[in-house]
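Two proteins follow. First one:
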Amino acid sequence: MDLLALAIGFVAGLRSMPAPAAVSWAAYLGWIDLYRSPLQWMGSGITVALFTLAAVAELVADKLPRTPNRTAPGPLVGRIVLGGLAAAGLAVSAGESLLVGAVLGGVGAVIGAFTGYQIRQRAVRALGGRDLPVALLEDLLAIALAWLVVSRP
């Protein structure tokens, strides 16, 4: 469970909203059980819709030139919180501590934010300054990793 909490936090470090959106979808579809937990609301249809819309908006906004750096204090705190929320959901569904899950998710978000930033910067330089292909690949990686984490058997 600890590795899954770190992994979903890592996703939040790459893109903040796919992590809670994936956990919300997993709860909504019955892949994970948040029933009778403090995070039961994550499995509601309204939450799924809101998190999904926010994730799509983030995928678009990430490509805009005025989007702040993910390692800046504000965006980084948001990623820590959202990674912690997503990981807490996974922890609770596995009968583990919500708090431990949240902390691991936050740690994973920090790792993901700084690792993703460094890799993206190097890849963009290697492509002669072309950011869009790297950003799209990072989007796909975040979505695939989130799906992989929440769809585990």
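Second one, unrelated to the first:
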Amino acid sequence: MSEAIVTMPARPAAWRLWPLNLWIGLMVTGAIVITALLAPVIAPYPYDEMSILTRLRPPSASHWLGTDDFGRDVLSRTLIGARYSLIMGFGAALSSFSLGVPLGLLAGYSSRAVDEAIMRVMDVLLSFPPILLGLLILTVTPPSVYKAMIAVGVVYVPAIVRIARSVTLEITQEEFIQAARARGDSTAYILFREILPNAWPPLIVEAGLRVTFAILLAAAFSFLGMGAQPPSSDWGLMISDARPFLETAPWIVLAPGIAMSVTVIGINLLGDGLRQVMDPRLSSGRSG
């Protein structure tokens, strides 16, 4: 008597189930990161090379995106500017998470007194508009790229603390946390070995959003003269320097403006796609 062999349908690979916006965001963000890494190699001219004889030239075969008021190649400055923007965005997000996540975990897990003390300080910081709080921080010391990056990171700490605290309060009610307490595990062990690994999905999604906010805020600081300083090719600084030539040489402001828009859209699509993949509720709704 022959036995029937039942074959189960093969499950598709996890990456095949990724939504379209995640694929688009991954490709756009990856292309921008690769461009920023290779910028010194693929830039046709040195970003700070000036030539009065070629100033304010429109796009041509020799200068694909034209030149600015100092005769500098706009394409080269835009490519190098991607480095500054990504360093500012990812650096600021990393600094804000380095401060905000431990504080949020501590506020959500500790006693009510500790929670109140941390959250009241965060409420005070949240009462300031982000750009005003950043400017207050930057006025203490002379402006620079890295000081602006730290200032942007500090601005977004309260938002990260709130998210980490909210996730911690939810996870703390789980049985494995009660078991860890019953075993006598230390607070640090519970926070960083039990709660943090389970809190990463929403935090990673939030990180994508904070990178885009940080890029825009850092560009605003550079636009106001409190971030990157000349002759840097930061996108915000390029837009600020191009203001007097909006009517006569619009290509100077269009190049960094479009580059910044594409970068922000790509990272936003990547973050939204990660949210759909990592959120169980959205994943189940999509598969059903």
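SUMMARY FIELD: Residues 284-288 have pLDDT under 50 and may be disordered. DSSP finds eleven helices and no strands in the chain.
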